[in-house]
Amino acid sequence: MLKNTHSLLRFISVVCLAGWLGIAQAEVKLTDAWVRVSNPGQSVGAAYITLSSAQDVTLVYVETERAGSVEMHSMTMQNGIMKMRSMEELPVPAGKPVKLAPGGLHLMLFELPAPFKAGEQVKFRLCFKDKQGKITDQFITMPVKAAP
Ligand SMILES: [Cu+2]
Q1: Is residue 106 included in any domain, yes or no?
Q2: Does residue 17 lie in a domain region?
Q3: What CATH number is attached to the domain comprising 139?
Q4: I need a surface site. Which of 46, 74, 90, 119 has the fewest CB within 10 A?
Q5: Distance, CA 139 to ligand 1 centroid (Å)?
Q6: Are the C-beta atoms of 44 and 106 separated by less than 8 Å?
Q7: Contact 140, 126 (CB under 8 A)
Q8: Residue 70 C-alpha to ligand 1 middle, in angstroms?
Q9: Distance 121 CA to ligand 1 centre (A)
Q10: What is the 3-state secondary structure (H, E, C) of 24-75?
Q11: Residue 136 and residue 22: Cα distance in Å, rounded?
Q12: Cα 88 to ligand 1 centroid, rounded to whole Å
C-alpha cells in the first residue's frame, strides 16, 4: 500500500513537471490588454497589450470575432504628423516586454460590425512563432475601456 502511494505520487509529479515544461516553452505573458471604446458608425478600432516572453518570439497573426481583420501598426511622428504603418509581424525579444499603447504600437481593428462599448469583454487569438518556426496560439479576453 505504501509502495503504491509512493509511485502514484511520483507519477503525478512527473505529469505536472511535463505540463509545466510545456507551458514554459511557448507561453507569452499577456498583460495590460484592453480595447478602446468606439463610436457607433466608426469602422475601425484599436486594442493594446503588453507582450513579454522568456524567449525570442514573433507575433505573426491576430484575430477577433469583433473585427473583419486585425493589423499590427506602428505609429511615429513625421514633421508633426502622426503616421501609422502596418507591420507584417511584431518581434518580441526575450526578456524585453513589447508595450502596445496609445500613441505607439497598437492593434488596428477593421470592419467593426458593432461599436465597442465600455465594460464589454472581447476575445482575441494571438499567434506567435518561435525561432524554430513553430506557431503557438494564445487566447485572451480584453475588456473594453475608454482611453485614459
Ligand atoms: Cu493603426
Answers
A1: yes
A2: no
A3: 2.60.40.1890
A4: 119
A5: 21
A6: no
A7: yes
A8: 10
A9: 21
A10: HHHCCEEEEEEEECCCCCCCCEEEEEEEECCCCEEEEEEEECCCCEEEEEEE
A11: 11
A12: 13
Domain total in the chain: 1
Residue 11 CA, ligand 1 centroid: distance in Å: 50
Domain encompassing residue 75:
28-145
Please list the pLDDT of the chain residue by residue as tens digits (148 residues): 555 656 655 555 554 454 455 444 558 999 999 999 999 999 999 999 999 999 999 999 999 999 999 999 999 888 889 899 999 999 999 999 999 999 999 999 999 999 999 999 999 999 999 999 999 999 999 999 998 8
Measuring CA to CA, which residue among 28, 62, 22, 45 is closest to residue 102?
A: 45
Provide the residues around ligand 1 (an ion) whose CB is within 5 A.
Answer: 73, 84, 108
What confidence score (pLDDT) does residue 77 get? 86
Q: Is residue 79 part of a domain?
A: yes
